[in-house]
Amino acid sequence: MKKSTMYFAFSMAALILIGLGYVWMDRPDLVQSDNKTPKQGSDQKTEQLYQVPKSDLKSKHFVQDITPNKVGDYTVTSQGVQVKLKQKVQLNQTISSGPVIYHINEIRVLDNYARTDNAKRAARRAMDYPKLPKHYTTVEVHYQLTNHAQQKLITDGMATLSYPKGDVMTSLGGMVNGAQLANEGVEPGTAQSGYVVAYVPKRDAKHLTAINLEFASTYNESGQQISEKTKKIKVNL
Fold first, then answer.
1. Domain range enclosing 133
2. How many domains in the chain?
3. Residue 220: is its pLDDT beyond 80?
4. Is 107 in contact with 140 (CB distance < 8 Å)?
5. Who's near 183: CB < 8 A, 6+ residues apart?
6. Distance between CA 104 and CA 139 in Å, rounded?
7. Contact 93, 104 (CB under 8 A)
8. Which pTM value belongs to this model?
9. Which residue of 52, 106, 225, 226 is most buried, as measured by CB atoms within 10 A?
10. Coil, strand, or helix at residue 222?
């Protein structure tokens, strides 16, 4: 549990550093900020909010609800990251580990463009990926965890997300889990939704046809393991 907790804390620290404030869940890929008071000195630029141009506001593809649901639509975060929904795939795949069942129901492929240096810095911190380019792709995996154990479980969510060419994203870099499963847990006999956002390296993004998912171990509130990591499951896009 200590290792799992460390991973989660590390990811959350990256989010807190840039003051993320999401309207829709707490998605790190959108790098949204609700800071109102800029810091003094060199951090002042980091805290400045991006003003969306009128040309975007007039576009029929621009949405302000922070989460584009229609392929081709886009939004621009308050730190200047343009996020466009490139692909949305509905799925019905399951994998289990002991008394825990994961149902993968949707994958979104997002085309991201950091319009300013401030936006690029914010995205790099959020994704904990120092070499994140200005124009980059992310995948967003949505799933449901069902707890058939007799006790409440806690988990980080996804352990690894990898690509056919061998690139692997983890909580230590390039991948950020939603916080709900770790913060609230899952009561026995119930199900809870989760998600993960991961960077797609350029060589993988060119022809992204599949990803490999490996869900993390789960624990009870005392730190005792309930289920081990799942085997890797291949998901076709």
1. 2-236
2. 1
3. yes
4. yes
5. none
6. 13
7. yes
8. 0.81
9. 226
10. coil
